[in-house]
Amino acid sequence: MPAKVDVDQCLGCGVCVDECPGGAISLNGDIASVDEALCTECGACVDVCPNIAISLK
Ligand code: SF4
Ligand code: SF4
Predict the structure, then answer these.
(1) Residue from 51, 48, 15, 44 nearest 3 by CA
(2) What's 36's domain CATH number?
(3) What pTM was computed for the model?
(4) Separation of alpha carbons 32 and 25, rounded Å
(5) Contact, 2 vs 12, CB < 8 A?
(6) Which domain holds residue 12?
(7) Ligand 2 atom with minimal separation from the 38 CA
(8) What is the torsional sign of CA 1, 31, 48, 40?
(9) Looking at the 3D structure of the chain, how many domains does it have?
(10) Whole-angstrom Cα distance, residue 34 to residue 28?
(11) Residues 12, 48: Cα–Cα separation, whole Å
(12) What is the rounded distance in angstroms from the CA atom of residue 41 to the CA atom of residue 26?
């Protein structure tokens, strides 16, 4: 499954956006949004999120 953002936990910091090698994450307002078609499930965003707001299921 592609990375999923917990909108209640996302701080809108943008760290994951810069970390994603596939450019799959963007900020929609102040919430990160994953383009599931571009996500390779590498886990990089999960590792860098300071608030544990992204997960791979
Ligand atoms: S790194 Fe975490 S808190 Fe920051 S924008 Fe991404 S999902 Fe939100
Ligand atoms: S799992 Fe990897 S490819 Fe998918 S959104 Fe996170 S950093 Fe990008």
Answers:
(1) 44
(2) 3.30.70.20
(3) 0.95
(4) 6
(5) no
(6) 4-55
(7) 3
(8) positive
(9) 1
(10) 10
(11) 13
(12) 16
DSSP letter for each residue of 5-56: E-TTT-----HHHHH-TT--EEEETTEEEE-TTT-----HHHHH-TT--EE-
Predicted confidence (pLDDT) per residue in 1-33, tens digit: 999 999 999 999 999 999 999 999 999 999 999
Sign of CA dihedral 6, 43, 39, 45: positive
Pinpoint the alpha helices (H) of the chain: 15-19, 44-48
Question: Is residue 54 in contact with ligand 1, taking CB distance under 6 Å?
Answer: yes
Q: Ligand 2: which atom is nearest the Cα of residue 43?
A: 1
What's the gap in Å between 51 CA and the centre of ligand 2?
Answer: 16
